[in-house]
């Protein structure tokens, strides 16, 4: 599928979700639903379980109790290999610490994401995507030679390169000044909307409090 064509947004459905570590309750979400193609914010203070919840939404960890479904598929119920394949194709993740591969160029990082999802190379699409994220001149650069803002846009490009139906971003704005905060949120929203992808942003950044049509507040945990 060409990147320019819209992905079918995936719904997110959580019910009776609990996540414990070492007998300690980290997360407790009774119900949450995000309709396909919608944009939502997960807001909570440090330690409230936002990254934990994104990991559950991405099928990177399994709930202690309850269910997480993406696009109607119950992640915990899938065999591990199927879950990895589903994540690679359907879910784009912008990690808080970016996790770019330092040994590869910008374009190489995007190619690797397609390769790992067993998707065919898409050089023209990669070029268009880098162009759209204002990175056209940086395709051959290594992550270490990028500015922080450029590196973050590469991480966003990589999350989009497989045309996911769900885009997750962890704290994309907490280190940014107001102007760049607005810029990055607008970029994520515009790119998700252009592709029809559902967007979930996790943050403790209260500047985003009223920006999204839908919000889940995670309480502070003792
Ligand atoms: N592997 C782990 N082992 C033990 N405790 C963990 C582990 N992962 C997370 N936690 C704990 O779970 C709680 C929630 O962590 P999480 O990273 O999800 O919070 P967060 O809301 O993303 O915080 P931040 O805003 O600082 O990123 C924290 O108290 C954290 O210490
Ligand atoms: Mg976190």
Blueprint of the fold:
Elements lengths: L11 E10 L2 E11 L4 E5 L6 H8 L7 E6 L2 E2 L5 H11 E4 L11 H11 L6 H10 L15 H13 L5 E5 L7 H18 L2 E6 L10 E4 L5
Helix pairs in contact: 3-5
This protein binds adenosine-5'-triphosphate (ATP) and magnesium ion.
Polypeptide structure, described:
This protein has 222 residues and is an alpha/beta fold. It has one domain (12-216): Rossmann fold, CATH 3.40.50. It is 32% helix and 24% strand. It contains six helices and nine strands, in the order E-E-E-H-E-E-H-E-H-H-H-E-H-E-E. The protein has helices spanning 50-57, 80-90, 106-116, 123-132, 148-160, 178-195; strands at 12-21, 24-34, 39-43, 65-70, 73-74, 91-94, 166-170, 198-203, 214-217. A five-stranded parallel β-sheet has the order 6-7-8-3-9, with helices on both faces. It has a four-stranded antiparallel β-sheet with strand order 2-1-4-5, covered by helices on one side. Helix 6 (178-195) links the parallel strand 7 and strand 8 (198-203). The longest helix is centred in the C-terminal third of the chain and has 18 residues, at 178-195. It is globular. The model is unreliable at 1-5 (pLDDT under 50). Adenosine-5'-triphosphate (ATP) binds at residues 21, 26, 44, 46-52, 204.
Question: Main traits of this protein?
Answer:
alpha/beta; 32% helix; 222 residues; disordered N terminus; 24% strand; Rossmann fold; five-stranded parallel β-sheet; binds magnesium ion; 6 helices; four-stranded antiparallel β-sheet; binds adenosine-5'-triphosphate
């Amino acid at each position: 599928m060409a990147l320019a064509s819209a992905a079918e947004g995936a719904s997110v459905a959580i019910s009776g979700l609990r996540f414990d570590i070492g007998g300690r309750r980290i997360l407790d979400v009774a119900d949450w639903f995000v309709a396909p193609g919608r944009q939502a914010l997960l807001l909570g203070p440090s330690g409230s379980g936002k990254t934990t919840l994104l990991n559950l939404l991405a099928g990177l960890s399994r709930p202690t109790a309850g269910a997480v479904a993406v696009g109607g598929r119950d992640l915990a119920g899938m065999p591990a290999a199927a879950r990895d394949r589903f994540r690679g194709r359907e879910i784009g993740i912008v990690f808080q610490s970016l996790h770019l591969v330092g040994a590869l160029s910008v374009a190489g990082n995007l190619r690797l994401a397609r390769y790992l999802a067993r998707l065919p190379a898409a050089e023209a699409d990669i070029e268009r995507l880098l162009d759209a994220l204002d990175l056209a001149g940086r395709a051959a650069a290594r992550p270490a030679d990028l500015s922080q803002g450029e590196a973050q846009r590469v991480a966003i490009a990589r999350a989009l390169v497989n045309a996911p139906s769900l885009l997750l971003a962890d704290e994309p704005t907490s280190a940014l000044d107001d102007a760049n905060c607005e810029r990055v949120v607008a970029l994520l929203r515009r790119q998700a909307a252009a592709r029809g992808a559902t967007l979930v942003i996790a943050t403790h950044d209260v500047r985003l409090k009223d920006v999204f049509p839908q919000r889940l507040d995670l309480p502070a945990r003792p």
